[in-house]
């Protein structure tokens, strides 16, 4: 099964954790795993897909961020009811297929996340502050180790949205989903390797956002988020040009 999973993941243009997450998500959306049912153990999933526990944990983490799974202490991981969205908003949850689509989504995110970072600076509780710092540290660890960091990146943005204490900000990000940060997928399509300098730049931008929120500096938090998303759009434009030359 290990070779099968790797082959199918490669054919789909996904890494192993993304492939496993896609398979589990399909089972949830198609009703094979119903709301309230318990997810198979990590051991069973590693055996089924022929991958490591780390891959399974990353896949589960992503599905939690997408609002499809939830952990219950001492009991395990359970399936949640998929959120129903109005047909006029379904385009938001589609995986961006082009650089232009990614940039358009970043512009949409900017209109919401700049305000979210400002509210977070004003309303962040000590527990929410700790979660933001923890998410930032996990992202940092992935960057330093040279590993794919999209899930940790998205988790940080969700933690900031949660710190607004306005559930609508959180729902908006979950509606978009973590596929709105497709760096590794787009690099792969362009036959490009992960650029450590770019990842470190993103880490620095995150640090500036987090520091401003911790300082309770509303204006600085909004400015840092604006710069981060604008820089993100430019990074994808550069990626598009490199892809054309490859």
From TrEMBL:
Lineage: superkingdom: Bacteria
Residue span, HTH gntR-type domain: 14-82
Keyword DNA-binding: yes
Keywords (A to Z) from UniProt: DNA-binding, Transcription, Transcription regulation
Record-linked InterPro entries: GntR_C, TF_FadR/GntR_C, Tscrpt_reg_HTH_GntR, WH-like_DNA-bd_sf, WH_DNA-bd_sf
One Pfam family from the record: FCD
TM helices/strands, residue ranges: none
UniProt GO molecular function: DNA binding; DNA-binding transcription factor activity
Name the UniProt record assigns to this protein: Putative L-lactate dehydrogenase operon regulatory protein
Organism: Shimia thalassica
Gene: lldR_2
């Amino acid at each position: 099964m290990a070779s099968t999973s790797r082959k199918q993941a490669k054919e789909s243009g996904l890494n192993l954790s993304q492939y496993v997450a896609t398979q589990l998500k399909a089972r949830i959306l198609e009703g094979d795993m119903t709301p309230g049912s318990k997810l198979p153990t990590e051991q069973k999933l590693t055996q089924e897909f022929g991958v490591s526990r780390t891959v399974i944990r990353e896949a589960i983490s992503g599905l939690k961020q997408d609002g499809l799974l939830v952990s219950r202490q001492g009991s395990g991981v359970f399936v949640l009811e998929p959120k129903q969205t109005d047909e006029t908003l379904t385009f938001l949850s589609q995986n961006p297929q082009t650089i232009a689509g990614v940039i358009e989504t970043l512009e949409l995110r900017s209109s919401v996340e700049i305000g979210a970072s400002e509210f977070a600076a004003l309303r962040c509780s000590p527990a929410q502050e700790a979660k933001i710092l923890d998410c930032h540290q996990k992202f940092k660890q992935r960057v330093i180790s040279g590993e794919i960091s999209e899930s940790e990146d998205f988790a940080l943005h969700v933690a900031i949205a949660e710190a607004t204490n306005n559930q609508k900000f959180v729902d908006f990000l979950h509606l978009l989903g973590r596929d709105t940060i497709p760096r590794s997928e787009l690099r792969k399509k362009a036959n490009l390797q992960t650029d450590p300098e770019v990842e470190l730049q993103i880490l620095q931008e995150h640090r500036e956002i987090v520091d401003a929120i911790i300082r309770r500096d509303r204006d600085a938090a909004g400015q840092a988020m604006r710069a981060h998303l604008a820089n993100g759009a430019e990074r994808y434009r550069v990626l598009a040009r490199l892809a054309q030359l490859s």
